[in-house]
Write a structure and sequence with these properties.
CATH architecture: Alpha-Beta Barrel
CATH topology: TIM Barrel
Number of helices: 13
CATH superfamily: Metal-dependent hydrolases
Bound molecules: zinc ion
Number of strands: 18
Structural class: alpha/beta
Largest sheet: 8 strands, mixed
Distance between the termini: 33 Å
CATH class: Alpha Beta
Mean pLDDT: 97
Length: 433
Amino acid sequence: MSSKLLIKGGTLLDPAKGLNEKGDLLSVDGIIEATGKPGAFDSESEAEVLDASGALVSPGLIDIHVHLREPGFEWKETIESGARTAAAGGFTSVCCMPNTNPVIDNAQVVEFILEKSELAGGARVHPIGAISEKLKGECLAPMVELWEAGCVAFSDDGWPVWNSALMRCALEYGKMMNLVLACHEEDTALSHGFSMNESELSVELGLKGMPAAAENVMISRDIELALLTGGRVHFCHVSTARGVELIRRAKKDGAKVTAETAPHYFILDETAVTEYDTSAKMSMPLRKQEDIKGLLEGLADGTIDCVASDHAPHEEDSKRVAFGDASLGILGLQTTVPLLLEKVREGALSLERAIASVTSDARACYGLEQVSLEKGSVADISVIDPDCKITFGKEHNLSLSSNSPFFGRELQGLARYTVVAGRKVFDSEGLYS
Ligand SMILES: [Zn+2]
């Protein structure tokens, strides 16, 4: 017998297809069968029904930058806990960074992750392979082998590719296969030992800062190398207004570059660390109000293609230490959608642009197959309730870690259901309502 799922009473929102209207959606055996006017499929008596009234029904959301910590750091997060946390955040897919132990620099690790994610029963997990062996920036990782094993992009995230000649070489290889290099842009000679943004505030707090220039010079270098080689660069977690400006210019010049930012960079500024709150310590660091303005303008006009969480779980012991010693990174999978929708409510960007930044435009950054609400698309669907509101607390958090500066904040606009291949992998009942 075929398995049918009917999503009823919502607003079908698929910005890439210009769709924004009330309607119902029917999926059969994991594939979208049809969409229609409200009530169009009420005769499908054997279908499982999801009530989407008052909610947005979107093509499945993707987060192209997360750290799932397995293999090697399973006390922080596992593939299973990460995939389930992602589903609770409204994501049907995530792309996981290779800074695990062992690093994702050989096919066996890729196979391990894909097998684990099959069993996880949450969001789909797409591994990102290393650019260099062991992320050391010395020798290229076997990119073709990693690609064939299922990696969707390449990154040394956590670290920059400090060696410009190696970066050039990776771009030249990448170009032959149309691969994307996702780059963490940091000149470590300028940023060494940093724990926040470099500014008057870092001086006042007595903390070592990372100047915006440490990020911007590496963005500039990789724009030049992208132009030189014709290879594709994706800029991870852009945090500076100047970085946005450089990328805007590079796109005009024809460089094959795309960019992401993370919600914390347009929600919080550097003053979030004033009380030495280690839950607001991450890399890149939080910047200034003028950077927030530049990032939001870049996001609104598409210079910043997408929003990704940079979900980076850490156990309490690594955060409950002196500020300078605390681990870098915060959770993000369950806060990304509501923080993005907060900016929509404030008028900084349109709802369509916000949804595109976590669906079609995010998939395009890595050249991934698109999903849509049209007949024949795989039934990966996110049902988001724009009115659902919580004060974010530990009781809502599904990650194994709890390093978030957003606990205690009101979050509005949360996933009601997440559907992967026509199967419900998240239901908010009991968690948010
Ligand atoms: Zn990074």
